[in-house]
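Reminder: ligand-aware prediction takes two inputs, not one.
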Amino acid sequence: MRVGVLTGGGDCPGLNAVIRAVVRKGVKEHGFEFVGFCDGWRGPLEGLTMPLGIEQCRGILPRGGTILGSSRTNPFSVENGVERIRENLAVGGEDTLGVATKLADLGVRVVGVPKTIDNDLSGTDFTFGFDTAVNIATEAIDRLHTTAESHHRVLVVEVMGRHAGWIALHAGIAGGASAVLIPEVPFDIEAVCAHVETRFHSEYAPIIVVSEGAVPADGSGMTLASGEKDAFGHVRLGGIGDRLAREIEDRTGKEARAVVLGHVQRGGTPTAFDRWLATRFGLQAIDAVADGDYGVMVALRGADIVRVPLIEGTGELKVVSPREYAEAQVFFG
Ligand code: F6P
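Here is what comes back for the chain with 6-O-phosphono-beta-D-fructofuranose:
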């Protein structure tokens, strides 16, 4: 059998580990041949392929990015898009797996692997890439603490997270943030300023961690988008950190600066956890193909890698619950 592999949406550390595991087990244990589709769904749409075998996978385990390339192409918004797509094995996040779910409903034989630094796919305890992003953000917060202390200034750290605040929450707790602002809970700017003042009273400088998708409760237009939309209709976010820093400075009189971590969170070497998780996802995904078990996504449940219907992973976003947010709030101020 010939199996196509593609990686779509925002890249994330661990994609190459999945590809390697899929190919190694597929070739060695199932006798499959592979073809790599380049640049996400654009590959099968436009017939962009590359050779994919054990040889192409040598040395890629610790490498960030994806050897197959990625894109945010949506075959459902392209004329005859679906007809041009056949049998694929897709590694993707919310959007890429959303496409896979619809294709599976149309009878396309597809297996999904949950990829996103945002960790916002339901059906799995964790997505791969998330641990690396949290570690990068945590290290940045640790470094910012020392410079914030020296200059007695507020540092606002903007992290990724369009609809879900998982990166902000985990890195904020791990890095000892004075406040963590997430898309799920509109923030009160006065409360944020109060946390800033409290922190200065105890002679420490505050670090405020904010998700790119966080919004103020009064809807005062601090959230930002360039107005541009991708093929899935998402506006480009970014800018909340800067606006928040300016607002804090105006209201408290304390100097405030913003640091936007942006794509740094998606790049570079995956952590050992992400390599381990991605590898196990890859092994289970190719076994699903061998079993003819299509329309599924592999998932982490406790310590086990299981298969769940694709719709379970993509039907609903996994967001931070009030209980989980309350754990971070204990440390605000
Ligand atoms: O989907 C993952 C993600 O990291 C989001 O958190 C973020 O909004 C988006 O990608 C930005 O991606 P890009 O700049 O590549 O379009």
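The first helix runs from residue 15 to 30. The chain has two domains: 2-129+270-314, 131-266. We will return to this case in the review session.
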